[in-house]
Design brief:
The chain has 87 residues and is mainly alpha-helical. It has one domain (11-86). It has 2 helices and no strands. α1 (11-38) runs antiparallel to α2 (44-86). The two termini are 36 Å apart. The model is unreliable at 1-9 (pLDDT under 50).
């Protein structure tokens, strides 16, 4: 996911980066959800592990929401710039 610092940032490359990041977050959320839902709790240690996965799931869902908001803001910024150039 690293980008060349000298490469120009275009709207499509920014959108592609957001899409790739959202895909990665979806995979992480699915894995965390699977870990939370699939295990049986036999002892306190297993419950601690499950609670850790619940925290990971909550954190990842929050990061995904932030990335989606950033993507929308970037799109709005691009649209506003295009409108301003048209004036």
């Amino acid at each position: 996911m690293s980008a060349d610092a000298s490469a120009p940032v275009t709207a499509s490359s920014g959108a592609d980066e957001y899409d790739e990041l959202l895909d990665d977050l979806d995979a992480a959320i699915a894995e965390a959800r699977r870990k939370v839902e699939s295990g049986r709790v036999r002892d306190a240690e297993n419950e601690k592990v499950r609670q850790g996965w619940i925290r990971v799931l909550a954190y990842t869902a929050n990061v995904k929401r932030q990335v989606q908001n950033d993507s929308k803001l970037a799109d709005l910024d691009e649209r506003i710039s295009a409108l301003e150039e048209g004036e």
